[in-house]
Amino acid sequence: AKMTEWQVRAIELLAERYRFGSGSLHAHKVSALASSIFDQLTALSLLPHLSQSHRRLLVAAGYARDLGKSPLALDDISDLSLPLPPDCPEDDPQFVSFLTLQVQLDSQMCPITIPSLDPVDRSVLLYSILSSGSSRVEEVEGEPLHDGFATQTLGGILRIADGLDVRHRLMVQGVELRRASRWIRLLVRTFD
Predict the structure, then answer these.
(1) DSSP annotation of 93
(2) Could you tell me if 98 and 73 are in contact, meaning their C-beta atoms sit under 8 angstroms apart?
(3) Is 4 helix (H, G, I), strand (E, B) or coil?
(4) Exposure class string for 117-142: b at 16+ Cβ within 10 A, else e
(5) In the chain, which stretches have pLDDT less than 70?
(6) Please, which residues have CB within 8 angstroms of residue 179's CB and are 6 or more apart in sequence?
(7) Quick one: which of 116, 122, 27 has its CA closest to 68?
(8) Angle at 187 between CA 165 and CA 184, to 5 degrees
(9) What is the pLDDT of residue 89?
């Protein structure tokens, strides 16, 4: 993985164009919670195969994961005749987010210039978004799935972070992971 801060920022700007799907506060909160969980899992040596570049992919996916909830995203892909996998209908927000970002990454007309992504980074980014809505991910025709371990790991972290920001109420102040003998405790700090 080689994702840069500039690529993350470009994806954040693109997501802003779609109002982050569910709004800026939620997208930024999900990204912050996800990166905190990633950092703590890394500190506990539980993500030995993932790097800081994967962390940047996680943050970018957090910004883009809800693009499919934006009416503009639906408009942008409605005229495209893209092959849909059987388990990913067009009304699935993460699948619409996947398609929207995929189209924008390939488009010369994209209003935001996104520096070209390495094929593995592109795959992990797109499939992490898809995986953040479901634990089972099918490969989409024309978009090879690389690094399934990183994809599932980042998608799972995004699912947890999204779940912590219940109903987009920004009630979670932070999370703390504590290692026990055979499991990990997730402590959630809320605003009083």
Answers:
(1) H
(2) no
(3) coil
(4) beebbbbbbbbbbbbbbeeebeebee
(5) 1, 76-91, 108-111, 167-168
(6) 44, 185
(7) 27
(8) 115
(9) 56
Token digits for 39? 């950092």
Query: What pLDDT is attached to residue 78?
Result: 64
| Structure tokens given for 18 | 């779609």
Residues composing the chain? 192
3-state helix, strand, coil in the chain (%, to 5): 55, 10, 35
Element (H, E) at 30: helix 24-43
Instruction: Measure the CA–CA gap between 34 and 172, rounded to whole angstroms.
Output: 12
pLDDT at 60: 96
pLDDT score at 109: 66
Rounded to an integer, what distance in angstroms lies between the CA atom of residue 67 and that of residue 14? 9
Give the pLDDT of residue 112: 76
Closest alpha carbon to 96 in 77, 121, 122: 77
β-bridge mates for residue 172, sequence order: 190
**Angstrom distance (rounded) from CA 159 to CA 102:** 20
